[in-house]
Design brief:
By secondary structure, the chain is of the alpha/beta class. The protein is built from 13 helices and 12 strands.
């Protein structure tokens, strides 16, 4: 990290996405490559970004938006805006305070932070700094006892929902990060797993596959999800869904909602962009089932497009890491403020006073489009 004490917003930050470029000055090059990259050749990372360029927003005139706002409800929880901070692991890669500063920014901006199981800060410390809106992202561990321990700690710490990730049993290293020589720094440790059996090695025979019998041996199945739902009274969201049939089955299973996500391009390289599959998933589950979108958000206009295509709210991942690296908690809070204002500008010019006014009729699909990122 180049500027760990930097608490000043650089003068060239004029929009939320500017943090992405400024982070290249504040993060060590290998760490930036790791955060910016996904898996393999970054095909899905690129697709996530490009998907938003396939749509334009219709401006409208003579619409009264003077009573406008961005308030919404997700289940029994109310929020001032539809921006959540995604569960991003190992945030000390970006700033010495890591998740604690992100939590402080979330508290200051009335934003819901989703704390990662792989946080480089204890989930209890993150919860104390995060304010009233906080969810916990859960990875199934190799035993139910270890998973139950994480769940109990999250409940005791005051997290108000569980977000279980199902799409990350296998992750292929990013060619970009490997080329940059990235190695996880010594202070970036998954502190929440120090007392679990998450790292118990799998004993393979000569005939076993490193993938099927190795990496996938502890991948969760439907019985594990059913077990989890029986363990807690908190709402359980499922993150990592791209197929309408999976979303429909999860709705029938009783989950609180689904996060349409390809793990930021860190899982299957070549998976479709989250935004591309969002309309089909919305059509499958109906209008009343909560959907969040994760993947590729860089602006308030991107948020608007996600809402128009069926999301109730969005998760912001890499942007929070970029802003954290540039100016700590101040940077993350400023990034959220910029995203909110960019969304409000887009809503006002599109004649949408509230989030419920945003629908697919506000968008026009572009015949030829592309985004160079």
């Amino acid at each position: 990290m180049k500027n760990p004490a930097n608490l000043v917003i650089p003068p060239d930050i004029r929009c939320a996405q500017d943090y992405e470029f400024a982070a290249q000055r504040s993060m060590a090059a290998p760490s930036y490559a790791y955060v910016a990259g996904g898996s393999g050749r970054d095909l899905t990372v690129t697709a996530n970004l490009a998907a938003f360029s396939q749509w334009s927003v219709y401006p409208r005139v003579l619409r009264d938006v003077t009573a406008g706002h961005t308030r919404l409800s997700l289940g029994n929880q109310s929020f001032l805006h539809p921006i959540l901070l995604a569960p991003v692991a190992f945030q000390k890669l970006a700033h010495p305070a890591g998740e604690i500063d992100t939590a402080r920014a979330a508290s200051a901006t009335d934003t819901c932070m989703v704390c990662s199981t792989l946080s480089s800060s204890l989930l209890e410390d993150v919860a104390q700094a995060a304010g009233p809106h906080k969810w916990f992202q859960l990875y199934f561990q190799t035993s139910h006892d270890a998973t139950r321990n994480l769940l109990a700690r999250a409940e005791a710490a005051g997290y108000s929902a569980i977000v279980v990730t199902l799409d990350a049993s296998i992750q292929v290293a990013s060619a970009r990060a490997m080329a940059a020589g990235f190695r996880m720094p010594a202070d970036c440790v998954a502190l929440n797993l120090q007392s679990t059996d998450a790292d118990v090695p799998v004993q393979l025979t000569a005939d076993d596959s490193r993938i099927f019998q190795g990496a996938m041996h502890a991948a969760p199945g439907w019985p594990d999800l059913e077990w989890l739902l029986a363990q807690t009274s908190l709402p359980v969201w499922v993150k990592g869904i791209l197929h309408p049939d999976d979303a429909l089955a999860l709705k029938a299973a009783g989950v609180a909602g689904v996060v349409v996500s390809n793990h930021g391009g860190r899982s299957l390289d070549g998976a479709p962009a989250s935004l591309v599959v969002l309309p089909a998933i919305r059509a499958a589950v109906g209008e009343d089932f909560p959907l969040l979108l994760d993947g590729g958000i860089r602006s308030g206009a991107d948020i608007f497009k996600a809402l128009a295509l069926g999301a109730n709210a969005v998760l912001v991942g890499r942007l929070q890491m970029y802003a954290l690296s540039v100016a700590g908690a101040l940077g993350v809070a400023h990034m959220i403020k910029l995203l909110r204002e960019e969304l409000e500008i887009c809503m006002a010019q599109a004649g949408c006073a509230t989030l419920t006014d945003i629908d697919k009729a506000t968008l026009l699909r572009n015949e030829c489009s592309g985004r160079n990122e």
